[in-house]
Specification:
Blueprint: E1 11-12, E2 15-16, H1 19-33, H2 37-45, H3 48-59, E3 65-70, H4 76-81, E4 86-92, H5 95-102, E5 110-113, E6 126-132, H6 141-151, E7 152-163, H7 171-180, H8 182-190, H9 193-205, H10 209-218, E8 222-229, E9 234-240
Parallel strand pairs: 3-4, 3-6, 4-5, 6-7
Antiparallel strand pairs: 1-2, 7-9, 8-9
Helix pairs in contact: 2-8, 8-9
């Protein structure tokens, strides 16, 4: 996909922005929400996000080796994936989010600052790359997917958990909750209504299930598929790096 038509690059929620401004504003969002990010996730989803992330863990069963949880934030998904056989690294551009995660202690994880568009990993070095609710905060989605394809080993797995488009009967109720309740929760609990307004808007800007699957395939991954969760409110996307890509 040409950068000029990348679906995210020139927007911050509903606002048109240049690329560097988008990146700076998103960094600021996660700087201010980091202290109460996990609490807000529980409140906004009534704890259901934890069930979605456990589903991601189940779908990754049997995949061992080097694991990167991209945009891993406070490390909640990385902790689920750290089963004693995997070497799990949280990679996130927000130092504040990772600091909040490190403070929680628990299982041993590696923490590394890095952006999706320029991953700090060698080509063909990662067995499993996961990302949960993070790619919609990338600036150049097509470049991020190309980077994911680059760092995966031949035969390596990509698993993405992201908000998506709910079924038609649920959509009006979901929209009402998103626009009216979530920003108010952000104001009451985290003191950041604007940040949570952006998070709601960013969900609407992200490609739907089929559109995102097409982007994953265009990045060179195969066996691309998706699995709706909670009637499509969230979605698991899957892809694999072709074994024949060993020389890429």
């Amino acid at each position: 996909m040409p950068e000029s038509i990348d679906p995210l690059e020139h927007s911050f929620g509903r606002q048109p922005v240049v690329t560097d401004e988008r990146r700076a504003r998103i960094r600021e969002v996660f700087e201010v929400v980091a202290p109460r990010y996990d609490l807000m996730n529980d409140l906004m989803s009534f704890g259901i996000h934890r069930l979605w992330k456990r589903c991601l863990r189940r779908r990754c069963a049997g995949i061992t080796g080097q694991v990167v949880d991209l945009a891993g934030g406070t490390g909640d998904v990385a902790r689920l994936l750290a089963d004693g056989e995997r070497i799990v690294t949280v990679c996130d551009p927000s130092l504040a989010m990772m600091a909040a995660g490190r403070a929680q202690g628990g299982v041993a994880l590696n923490w590394l600052a890095g952006e999706a568009e320029a991953l700090p990993f060698a080509a063909n070095s990662v067995d499993l790359l996961t990302v949960s609710f993070g790619l919609r905060n990338a600036t150049r989605l097509s470049q991020a997917l190309a980077e994911i394809q680059r760092v995966l080993k031949p035969g390596g797995h990509f698993v993405c958990l992201e908000f998506s488009r709910p079924v038609r009967w649920l959509a009006p109720f979901y929209d009402l909750y998103s626009w009216l309740v979530i920003p108010r929760l952000g104001a009451a609990v985290a003191g950041q209504p604007i940040a949570y307004q952006y998070l709601v808007e960013s969900i609407r800007r992200f490609p739907d299930q089929a559109e995102f699957a097409a982007l994953v395939g265009a990045a060179g991954l195969i066996n691309v598929r998706w699995e709706n969760l909670s009637f499509g409110i969230a979605c698991l996307h899957f892809g694999e790096k072709p074994p024949a890509a060993a020389g890429w």
